[in-house]
């Protein structure tokens, strides 16, 4: 099997753009836990295995629980998320 997305870490221009984007997103006032839930969900949708592994670790450092992290893939069917988090996850 071949990767759908090439390793962007070896492309400095892309990584610089991603870093600027993350900085802007994290300065927008959205709680860090919500951002990590969204990052995890987007990573699941995009099929980025490195990101699916990384974002729960960051979320746990921000105080997120295993129960909610495990439920992100089925967030519509669980009672664990606030209306704001549901709106953010829907946008993902």
**Average residue pLDDT:** 89
Give the helix/strand class.
Answer: mainly alpha
Proportion of helical residues: 55-70%
Question: In CATH's first tier, which class of the domain at 31-91 applies?
Answer: Mainly Alpha
Question: What labels describe this entry?
Answer:
92 residues, AhpD-like, 5 helices, globular
Characterize the structure shown.
The chain has a domain at about 30-90: AhpD-like, CATH 1.20.1290.10. Helices cover about 65% and strands about 0% of the residues. It is built from 5 helices and no strands. Helix 2 packs antiparallel against helix 3 (about 50-60). The longest helix has 15 residues, at about 10-25. The radius of gyration is 14 Å and the shape is globular. The model has no long low-confidence stretch (mean pLDDT about 90).
Draw up the topology in text.
Blueprint: H1 12-26, H2 32-46, H3 49-61, H4 66-71, H5 83-91
Give a brief description.
It contains five helices and no strands. With 92 residues, it is mainly alpha-helical.
């Amino acid at each position: 099997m071949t990767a759908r997305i090439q390793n962007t870490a070896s492309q400095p221009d892309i990584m610089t753009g991603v870093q600027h984007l993350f900085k802007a997103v994290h300065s927008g006032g959205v709680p860090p836990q919500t951002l990590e839930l969204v990052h995890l969900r987007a990573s699941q949708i995009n099929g980025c295995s490195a990101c699916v592994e990384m974002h729960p670790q960051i979320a746990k450092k921000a105080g997120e629980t295993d129960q909610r992290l495990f439920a992100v893939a089925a967030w519509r069917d669980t009672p664990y998320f606030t209306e704001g988090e549901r709106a953010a996850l829907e946008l993902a």
